[in-house]
Amino acid sequence: MAALDGVSDIHSPMIKSVVGPSTAMTGLHRSAAHVGGAAGRRHVAVVSLPPHFTAASARAAGLSRATLRGPGFVRLAHNLTVRLDDAIDVCERLRPLAPLLPDDAAFSHATAAAVFDAPIDAPKRPHVALTPRRVLPQHAGLVVHGRRLDDEDVVVHRELRLTSGAQTFLDLAAGMPPWELVAIGDALLRAGHITRESLSGRLARAGRVRGVVRVRACAGLLSPLAMSRPESLMRYWIVNSDLPDPQPQVPVHDQWRRVVAHGDLGYPEWRVLLEYEGRQQAEPEQFGRDVDRYSLMAADGWLVLRFAGRHVLGPTAVVDRTRRALISRGWQQGAS
């Protein structure tokens, strides 16, 4: 297979050539800065570097290794550093790196999911998908995956070339527990990065790709109505228990049939609601609104179960308390 620009067939460099020490100095300005203590101050030249630069450029600018390891700089990859003020979020960290990658590269896996704002931390080493080569290029600062991607498997989002929502969901499946995969899938579906049609189409040509069995099992559980990762986790655990499936975003009506609140999850038949309490509930205004909601729910006969972060570390508390609440409202064990 012919190599694309910036990649050779036999020994492929992962990163295209970056600004060298000679060109890095072009157009840069110097300003005077004081260093040292009160006694014996001296002046040194401070050089403004471009958004990304090599170690040689940094040395030419007078920056020590200790300075580059400090909080003012971020190492994106081997021999590639950016100023921290140019890398305030995951996208800002990736944009300086993107032009240096091979033309067929797309950020993938957890990196793509983080750019899509899914509930997952961006990995320190960005994940990149490349068309398979005889020797797949590698780089110390990147995690490289060989992928044969169709046009529909790649999108441009927030000025970055990423694997599509469906492709990203499939790529993550092999190394992620199903409850976390459902939480990510819910977020991608809610934001429109996945549709049921796009996911179905990607699975139709997935063959025996790693993770495809898990994706097929989780695809039917996804809901765009889940508003947070904890809600997705609670729904997953209940759906995979012997309890009836809960309804997301249950409307609560007042005596005039007006919708006055929504429960995260619930059972209208038994008037049981499940609510997740995030840290935002500690804010005074939000706390006041929640008191109103819970009062309205209780006044209309709903039994509200409230869960916090420590309750969603596993399924036990959520499933057991939901079971007890349903039984107290007339649900019979073994009933659908």
As a whole number of angstroms, the C-alpha radius of gyration is: 26 Å
Low-confidence stretches: 1-12, 19-46
Helix and strand composition category: alpha+beta
Describe the biggest sheet?
4 strands, mixed
What is the terminal-to-terminal distance? 56 Å
Strand content: 15-25%
Task: Write the element-wise H/E pattern from the N-terminal end onward.
Answer: HEEEHHEEHEHEEEEHHHHHEEEHEH
- Lateral arrangement of strands in the main beta sheet: 11-12-13-14
List keywords for this structure.
336 residues; alpha+beta; Endonuclease, Chain A; 2 domains; 4-stranded mixed sheet; 3-stranded antiparallel sheet; disordered N terminus
Write the topology of this structure.
Blueprint: H1 21-24, E1 30-35, E2 42-47, E3 52-53, H2 55-60, H3 65-68, E4 73-77, E5 80-83, H4 90-94, E6 106-107, H5 109-115, E7 127-130, E8 143-146, E9 154-157, E10 160-163, H6 165-173, H7 178-191, H8 196-204, H9 212-219, H10 229-239, E11 247-253, E12 259-267, E13 272-276, H11 284-299, E14 303-307, H12 316-328
Parallel strand pairs: 7-8, 13-14
Antiparallel strand pairs: 1-2, 3-5, 4-5, 6-7, 9-10, 11-12, 12-13
Helix pairs in contact: 5-6, 6-7, 6-8, 7-9, 7-10
Q: How would you describe the overall organization of this protein?
A:
There is one protein chain. The protein is 32% helix and 20% strand. The protein is an alpha+beta fold. The protein folds into two domains: 9-23 and 43-224, no CATH class; 229-328, Endonuclease, Chain A. The longest helix is centred in the C-terminal third of the chain and has 16 residues, at 284-299. Residues 1-12 and 19-46 have low confidence and may be disordered.
